[in-house]
Amino acid sequence: MKRKVLTALLSVAMVATMLVGCGGNDSAQTPGETPAPAESEAPAEDAAPAEGGEDAEAAAPAAGGEGGLIGVAMPTKDLQRWNQDGSNMEAQLKEAGYEVDLQYASNDIQTQVSQIENMISNGCKLLVVASIDGDSLGTVLAQAKEAGVPVIAYDRLIMNSDAVSYYATFDNYMVGTVQGEYIRDALDLENAEGPFNIELITGDPGDNNARFFFGGAMDVLQPYIDSGKLVVKSGQTSFEECATANWATEAAQSRFDAIIASNYSDGTNLDAVLASNDSTALGVANSLAANYTGEYPVLTGQDCDIASVKNMIAGKQSMSVFKDTRDLATQVVKMVDAIMKGGEAPVNDTESYDNGTGVIPSYLCEPVFADVNNYKELLIDSGYYTEADLQ
Ligand code: BGC
After folding, report:
1. Helices marked H in the chain — which ranges?
2. Rounded to a whole number, what is the largest CA-CA distance in the chain?
3. Are the beta carbons of 321 and 365 closer than 8 angstroms?
4. Half-sphere exposure of residue 46: CA atoms within 13 angstroms, side-chain side
5. Which residues on adjacent β-strands are paired with residue 170?
6. 27-42 pLDDT, tens digit each
7. Bridge partners of 370?
8. From CA 69, how far away is CA 336, in angstroms rounded?
9. Residue 70, by phi and psi: left (phi above 0), alpha (psi -120 to 50) or beta?
10. Which phi and psi (to 5°) does residue 131 adopt?
11. CB of 93 within 8 A of CB of 333?
12. Are the C-beta atoms of 247 and 79 separated by less than 8 Å?
C-alpha cells in the first residue's frame, strides 16, 4: 500500500518534469502507428538509395529533398524503440527538406559497417549512427572523416573515433538514477527495516550506455547493499556478472531462471529487480511467471515498449523509463540542420561523454518514468500510443 502512495506522489512530480523534456514534437509521428517490427529487415529500407555519389545530388530529389542526403544507421528492428527512432528520424528529416537513407543492421556489426560504407559512397552528406557495438566503427568512420562527412552518434556513443562530431542521447546516467530511486522509494528503504532481496540485470557490454544506466542505479542502491538493507542473494553485483549480450530477452530470462532456481525456489521473497531496460525486464517477467511463486517484486525497465507497458498495466512490471523518441529525433534534426548550414549544433553537455579521443559535445534529453499511475498522461494523452496499442 505504501508503494502506491509513493508512486502516486512520484507520478505528480513526473508529469511536471515531462514538461521540461527536450524539444517539442510539432512534427512528431505517432510511434504507436509504427508497424510491428518485422522478423527480418524490410527490403525497402535495406535497399541502397537508387543514385550514388555525385548522381545523388544531380538526381531530382524527392519532394523537399534539396537539403541533401542524410544516412541514418540503426542497430536492429528487433527492438520496438529503434523502429520508432528510425521512422521518426526519417519523417522529421524529410519534413526539414532532406533525403534519407535509413538502414537497419539486424544487430550484426559487419552489416552495419557495410551499410555505413555504402552511405559514404552513395553521397550521404552527414551520418546519424546508432551503433551496435560502440567500439567497432573506427575504420569506417575514418573513411567518413576522410570524405568530409560529419557523424552524429545517436543514442549510443561511438567510442575511440575522432570522426564523431556530436552525440545526442537521453541522459543515460539519469536513466539509472531514476530506476534506482524508484526502487528506493517503492521499498521505502530510508524508513523500512528490511532487509529486502534484490537482483540486478543490465545490458550489452559493447553498448556504452549500459554502464551509465547501471552506474546511475548502483550509485543509488549500493549504499543500501553495503548497509545490508538490500541483499543480492545471487551474489552477482558487478557489471560483467549482470550484463546481457545484445540486450536479449532470452538471455535475461535464462539467467533469471538460474537465479530463481538457486535462491528463490524455496518460498524466499524477491522484493525488487533492477532491470536496465524493457527487453531485459521482459525476460525477468517471463522467468518469474514460469518459476516464482512469491510476492511480485518491484521491477524496473526502460523504453516503454508496448509489451512492457502492458505488463505494467497487468502489475507484472512496476515502471519503465520513458524516452520520447520523437523528442530525440527533433533534437537530432536540429543538429543535422545546423551542421548542414555550416553552423554549430546545439548542445547542452560538454563534460560527460569522452569517447576516448576527447569529450564529444552532446545534447542530453531528460528521461522520466512511467508507471501505472501516470502512463495515460505520458503515453496516451501525448499521442505516443493509442489506447488500442495497449490492449
Ligand atoms: C538504449 C536503450 C535500449 C537498449 C537496447 C540502449 O542503448 O539507450 O533505450 O533499451 O539500448 O536496445
Report:
1. 2-18, 43-46, 53-58, 80-95, 109-121, 138-146, 172-186, 208-227, 239-242, 249-263, 278-291, 306-313, 325-340, 375
2. 71
3. no
4. 10
5. 365
6. 334 443 433 333 333 3
7. 320
8. 11
9. beta
10. -75, 155
11. yes
12. yes
Per-residue pLDDT band for 197 (boundaries 50, 70, 90) equals: very high
Measured in degrees and rounded to the nearest 5, phi and psi for residue 238 equal -80, 160
Write out the three cell numbers for 341: 548550414
Show the cell assigned to 363. Answer: 545534447
21 grid coordinates: 523534456
Pocket test for ligand 1, best of 302, 320, 366 (most atoms within 8 A of CB): 302
Give the bridge partners for 169, in sequence order. 364
- The pTM score is 0.85
Higher pLDDT, 47 or 212: 212
**156 Cβ below 6 A of ligand 1:** yes
Report CA(207)–ligand 1 centroid distance (Å). Answer: 8
- Residue 61's closest CA among 28, 86, 93, 105? 93
Q: Is the CB of 181 under 6 A from ligand 1?
A: no
- Residue with the smallest CA separation from ligand 1 atom 5 is 247
The best mutation among 303, 317, 328, 353 to test binding of ligand 1, ranked by most ligand atoms within 8 Å of the C-beta, falls on 303
| Ligand 1 center–CA 278 separation, angstroms | 9
Does ligand 1 have an atom closer than 6 angstroms to the CB of 103? Answer: no
Atom of ligand 1 nearest to the CA of 172: 8
Q: How far apart are CA 382 and CA 7, in angstroms?
A: 20
- Number of H helices and E strands in the chain, helices first, is 14, 12
Residue 227, C-alpha cell as written in the block:
548497509
Kind of pairing between the strands at 69-74 and 99-104 = parallel
Q: What is the pLDDT of residues 116-130, one digit of tens each?
A: 999 999 999 999 999
Cβ neighbours for 268, distance < 8 A, ≥ 6 positions apart:
197, 233, 294
Give yes or no for a contact between 274 and 178, defined as CB atoms under 8 angstroms apart.
Answer: no
| Direct distance between the N- and C-terminal alpha carbons of the chain, in angstroms, rounded to an integer | 26
Sign of CA dihedral 18, 364, 284, 180: negative
Question: Looking at this protein, which amino acid is placed at residue 100?
Answer: V
